[in-house]
Structure formats: structure tokens, C-alpha cells
Amino acid sequence: MLNFLLALFIAFFSFSSAQSLTGSRILALLPETKIQTQYSTFFEQLKERNYSVAIKAGSDKSIELGKLGENLYDHILFLCPKCTKYGKNINLPSILKFVKNGGNILFAADSEMSQFNYDLASEFGVVFETKESAVIDHTHYYNVPTSNSTIKDTVIARNLNFNKHILPHYTDNKSQPEIFFKGIAHQFNKNSYMNLSILSGSLTTASVFKASKDKLSVIPPSSQLSGYNLNLVSVFQTLNNARIAFIGGTEMLKDIYIDIQKSDNIYGNSKFLKDLSMWTFHESGVLSHSSPLIYKTLDKISYESYQIKDSITYQVNISEYNQGKWTSFAANDVQLEIRMLDPYIRTTLDYTPSGDLEFNTFKKVITLPDKYGVFKFQIIYNRPGLTWVTITDTIPILPLRHNQFPRFLSQAYPYYTSSFVLLGGFVILSALWIFSPTFNK
Ligand SMILES: *[C@@H]1O[C@H](CO)[C@@H](O)[C@H](O)[C@H]1NC(C)=O
Ligand SMILES: *[C@@H]1O[C@H](CO)[C@@H](O)[C@H](O)[C@H]1NC(C)=O
Ligand SMILES: *[C@@H]1O[C@H](CO)[C@@H](O)[C@H](O)[C@H]1NC(C)=O
Ligand SMILES: *[C@@H]1O[C@H](CO)[C@@H](O)[C@H](O)[C@H]1NC(C)=O
Ligand SMILES: *[C@@H]1O[C@H](CO)[C@@H](O)[C@H](O)[C@H]1NC(C)=O
């Protein structure tokens, strides 16, 4: 409990300058620094949340991601799909090291993307469509007035993931989504619980090959991505809880696309980008837990080991960091397993809403299995949109001592009776044999 409060305390005071739990330093990589004016609304959003955003050209030789094994930034925005390399010698291993150290990434692709960026995405199992392809939709499209092209490649996407941890402003308000998107599609090359599609196409959306700037050929790229399995925006969470968001086009982050739809009642690009960046930069959907308290229900004392069939109580406090503050975490599916190779007990923990507190206490009274050995008490809680939680305690369960078994069992009374009957019979028989003069005749 003390550790838990301490962690909350430290988390609260050391990061009070930024909302993110992992830090406030953002590196934004653009093709040229002067392009930053095109992203002013998005950068403004980040600055409002107290991030310090370092805007650099992707080719800037002075960029370094880390020094002496420490990350120099907490989050990176890759907004330069055409960049063939970053910095002086930033390569895939150094970017992966950044992620291994807990750094988060928001990555934007585009129709014209360098091989380096394709390789970077594929490190996380994300396969972007071939170069020069584009997502189009003949029904849900928007004619950008400033553009003379007749291509219907500004798609109005509405197929959002209904995950309340990632897109809280969408799921809470149930407002009509209208996301303006221009770019390329992607898919995952592996079925994993770490990836999650956030925005995908509708039935009329397709990915096609771009023959020239203003014309689209009708030949679809070889993967033939279309409809709901065509991802426009998706996220990936690594095992160390670093988060990477993939956006199929830089355009949707720019002011022109944000400005198309600014109505408050519509869930548009601005709100979507805010939710997405908050989640990616650890401002939402982060779980924290106390170390569990395990004690004997009878005397409320924690022991090093327990005996078979003891009644114990397991309890753990869990809180969720949501939109920049700690809140009590509520869920009906937190499972505890008591296992020795196989689970002997698998049960759901109950919680009572704590009201104003920053956490909920999840609790269960359990009768230990009638089996002795070294058991693992384990909670593995992996849910999309939340950081992975694994809580493990190793606790031996001992057999009863020789003097702890019950002395007389009611089930054994027939056997006791038969023994005494036998004894009595022997005494009577012996007496008759010794004293009765007629018995032996
Ligand atoms: C959870 O919080 C309650 C209330 O503050 C406290 O009594 C309890 O010891 C905590 N449990 C754990 C496992 O830390
Ligand atoms: C940003 O920092 C200022 C000054 O430290 C603080 O007053 C403000 O509440 C912070 N904003 C957010 C969104 O954390
Ligand atoms: C659109 O066409 C007009 C006239 O043909 C031209 O002046 C303008 O630059 C074009 N705009 C774009 C974005 O290509
Ligand atoms: C829901 O919408 C109302 C106005 O329409 C707004 O005041 C409120 O902050 C919104 N709530 C969330 C969680 O976005
Ligand atoms: C990850 O991607 C695969 C392949 O597209 C998909 O089948 C799977 O459902 C995704 N995982 C989650 C948690 O959505």
C-alpha cells in the first residue's frame, strides 16, 4: 500500500508539468521545419497539454534519439514519409531501442513513402500498401475546394473502434464521427493481441493504384485491401507498454483537414487526433496497481505460506490514468488464477466502487485447493486500450501436519464398531472356552 501511494505521489509530483506519465519531450520530424505552419492546430493541442515540441527536419544531422542508453525524447512524431533517413545515423535498431526504453511513436505514412519508413512500420507488423496507391471511396468522399483534382481520395471515414480507453470523447458523447482522411491503407501481417485497428474503411472504401497525380488507375494493388479490413489508423502496444500509432496519411493532421469540419457536435479530426495522441503518449488507458494483499480470512494476518483448504482473502488496488488524472478503475473481468502448472482456481475478483478514491479495491475470498505444492497467484490482465498488467506472487501451500487431522470421523463409525464387536466377541469366546464346562464338549 505504501509503495502504491508513493508511486502515485511520485507520478503526481514529478510530472505535474505535463499530463503524460512518461514525459513531456516530443521530437517532431518533418520534411522541412517551415512546414510546421501546416500542422499548427495539432502542435497547438500538444503545447496546451504542456508538451515541449522540438520540431526538426528529418535530415537534420544533429538529431539524436538517445545518449548513454537514455532517451533524449519521450515521444516521436514521424511526419516525414518521404525521408529516406533520419538524422546522421539513426537506423532501425536505434529507433527500436528508443521504443524498448519506453518511448512512444506517432507515425504518419503517405502515398509516396521511402523504403526506410516501410521497414520501420514492418518492425511492428504493419504492412502499408505499395507505393503510389491511394484509398478512395466513391460514396463517402469530400471535394477539397482548393484542389483541382477529380480523384475521390479524401475519404470521410466513420468506422471508428469503440474503445473507451483510446477514444473516450467518441464513446462518451456518442457524437457522429466524421474523419477526413487522405493517404494509403495498411494491414497487419500477423494476428496478435498487440495491434488494434482504430479507424478503418467502410464497405465502399478501396485501395487503388495511383497512375498519376490527378488520375487513378482501376487496377487495385496486389493485396486488394478493401472495406472493413482496410486500416486507415491503427495502434500497437509493445510488451513494455510503449505505444505506436500508425496513421495512413499526413494530410489528416494538417490544418486544412482539421478545418473542414469544426462543429462541436461532430467527432472530427481535431477531437480524434487529441484522443489518439493522448492515448499514444500515455495520458489515457494506463493502469497502475498496488502489490496484492493476501491474508487468512480468519485472523486477517498474512503468512509466508498457507495450508490446504485455508480460506484466504486476496485483494489488490487498481487505478487508471485517464485523460491526465488518476481515477478508480472499474471492470468485471479481472481474473485471478491460482496455478501449479495448471490453474487450480480461476476466479473473477469483485470490486466495490470506492467513490471519490483514486482506485478501486478488487477482492475475493478463496478456499485454497486441496492440493499442496508451490503455487503461483497470478493476474494477467491484457485488454485492448489498456497497459498490460501482470501481477504474480509465488506462495507455497502446505499439507496438514500429522496432529492436525481430525481424530474421529463419523464416516468411520461402522469400522470402529466392527473392531469393538470383534474384540468383545473374542473376550466372550475366550471366557466361554475357559469357564464353560460344556463349551468344549
Ligand atoms: C487498498 O486501499 C485500502 C483503502 O485505502 C487499504 O485499506 C488497503 O490496504 C489497500 N490494499 C492494498 C492491497 O494495498
Ligand atoms: C500546464 O502547466 C501549467 C503551469 O505549470 C499548469 O498551470 C497547467 O495546469 C498545465 N496544464 C495541463 C493541461 O497540465
Ligand atoms: C487549380 O487550377 C487553377 C486554374 O487552372 C490554378 O490557378 C490553380 O493553381 C490550381 N490549383 C491547384 C491546387 O492545383
Ligand atoms: C460532450 O459534449 C459536450 C457538449 O456537446 C461537452 O461539453 C463535453 O465536454 C463532451 N464530453 C466529452 C467527454 O467529450
Ligand atoms: C491484429 O491484427 C489481426 C490481423 O489483421 C487481426 O486479425 C486481429 O484481430 C488484430 N488484433 C486485435 C486485438 O484486434
UniProtKB/TrEMBL annotation:
<comment type="subunit">
    <text>Component of the oligosaccharyltransferase (OST) complex.</text>
</comment>
<comment type="similarity">
    <text>Belongs to the DDOST 48 kDa subunit family.</text>
</comment>
<protein>
    <recommendedName>
        <fullName>Dolichyl-diphosphooligosaccharide--protein glycosyltransferase subunit WBP1</fullName>
    </recommendedName>
</protein>
<keyword id="KW-1133">Transmembrane helix</keyword>
<dbReference type="GO" id="GO:0018279">
    <property type="term" value="P:protein N-linked glycosylation via asparagine"/>
</dbReference>
<feature type="domain" description="OST48 N-terminal">
    <location>
        <begin position="25"/>
        <end position="280"/>
    </location>
</feature>
<feature type="signal peptide">
    <location>
        <begin position="1"/>
        <end position="18"/>
    </location>
</feature>
<keyword id="KW-0472">Membrane</keyword>
<dbReference type="GO" id="GO:0008250">
    <property type="term" value="C:oligosaccharyltransferase complex"/>
</dbReference>
<dbReference type="Pfam" id="PF23358">
    <property type="entry name" value="OST48_MD"/>
</dbReference>
<feature type="domain" description="OST48 middle">
    <location>
        <begin position="303"/>
        <end position="436"/>
    </location>
</feature>
<dbReference type="InterPro" id="IPR055457">
    <property type="entry name" value="OST48_N"/>
</dbReference>
<dbReference type="Pfam" id="PF03345">
    <property type="entry name" value="OST48_N"/>
</dbReference>
<keyword id="KW-0732">Signal</keyword>
<comment type="pathway">
    <text>Protein modification; protein glycosylation.</text>
</comment>
<comment type="function">
    <text>Subunit of the oligosaccharyl transferase (OST) complex that catalyzes the initial transfer of a defined glycan (Glc(3)Man(9)GlcNAc(2) in eukaryotes) from the lipid carrier dolichol-pyrophosphate to an asparagine residue within an Asn-X-Ser/Thr consensus motif in nascent polypeptide chains, the first step in protein N-glycosylation. N-glycosylation occurs cotranslationally and the complex associates with the Sec61 complex at the channel-forming translocon complex that mediates protein translocation across the endoplasmic reticulum (ER).</text>
</comment>
<dbReference type="InterPro" id="IPR005013">
    <property type="entry name" value="DDOST_48_kDa_subunit"/>
</dbReference>
<keyword id="KW-0812">Transmembrane</keyword>
<dbReference type="InterPro" id="IPR055459">
    <property type="entry name" value="OST48_MD"/>
</dbReference>
<feature type="transmembrane region" description="Helical">
    <location>
        <begin position="413"/>
        <end position="435"/>
    </location>
</feature>
<keyword id="KW-0256">Endoplasmic reticulum</keyword>
